[in-house]
Amino acid sequence: MNWESVIRTVATAVIAYLIGSLNPAIIITKIKTGQDIRTMGSGNAGFTNVLRSVGVAPAVITIICDYAKGILAVLVGWWIFSAMTLTDDVTRLEYVKYGGYLAGMFVIIGHSFPIFYGFKGGKGVVTANALMIVVDFRVFLLIIATFLIVVAFTKLISLGSITGAAMFPIYTCLITYFCDYLPLLVTADEIRFRFVLISTGCALVIGLMIIIMHHANIKRLIAGQEKKIKAKSKDAPKTETES
To answer: Which of the residues 123, 151, 170, 187 has an alpha carbon 20 to 30 A from that of 164?
Structure first.
């Protein structure tokens, strides 16, 4: 057993989870209103519910903080894995990417099931976007474009988030295969096909996590009962939205 890998993996997972457990929606709403965001609107501790239930300014601060914590967690994962002792068949670039994906998964878990707030948090969409920015900005741009197009036509943030999550592994596979693997060189490091498979697998797991967290939204979308987005400071309708 490679104890160095085990220690770095556990350290990355624990630190990322604890970072993710710091929920800006709960903190900011408490400061602003003295209430728990999870008792307001949809009951979800995320950006959309803050927008509906508290207001635009608190929602903007929430989304910035959610992005910041996601980026911080991935950078920590990169840093921990960047010092990994290299083997003959794994490049430094691969280790760093794997560390980023691992941290990204656990910061999302922390966001959704925060240890500091009774394991009831948000749905992880914004935090997942932060992961994409750091791990592969090309995939992030494709996901954001997909999200904006879907929301522009439907006014349904949940549908945009679910579609983006579903496309995450597809975009990751296409980008890593055609832009990284085929050219064989990225920042002077050789990329093996295993890198495409592992990156796509990580993106698939993260995408499924986001989709599963939207199970209630999916039921309402199928029934045609999902509410369209609009900012509302008070007396928001009872609806469960994302992130």
So the answer is: 187
CB 217 within 8 A of CB 154: no
- Selection from 77, 83, 85, 75 nearest residue 14 by Cα: 77
Tokens for 173?
């596979």
The answer to whether residue 55 is domain-embedded is yes
Confidence of residue 185 (pLDDT cuts 50, 70, 90): low
**Whole-Å CA distances, 56 to 62, 181, 243:** 10, 43, 15
Eight-state DSSP code of residue 87: B
Would 123 be classed as within a structural domain? yes
In-domain check, residue 214: yes
**Domain extent for 168:** 3-223
| Phi/psi of residue 161, nearest 5 degrees | -65, -45
Total number of domains constituting the chain: 1
Alpha helices in 90-192 (DSSP H): 92-112, 125-135, 137-154, 157-175
Identify whether 232 is part of a domain. Answer: no
Three-state SS at 45: coil
How does residue 88 score in pLDDT terms, banded at 50, 70 and 90?
Answer: low
Give the model confidence (pLDDT) of 126-173 as tens digits. Answer: 999 999 999 999 999 999 999 999 999 998 989 999 999 999 999 999
Strand partners, 190: 185
Whether 233 has a pLDDT exceeding 60, the answer reads: no
Query: Which tokens hold the place of 157?
Result: 């943030």
- Facing residues of 189 across strands? 186
**Structural element, H or E, at residue 76:** helix 56-82
In this structure, the chain runs to a length of 243
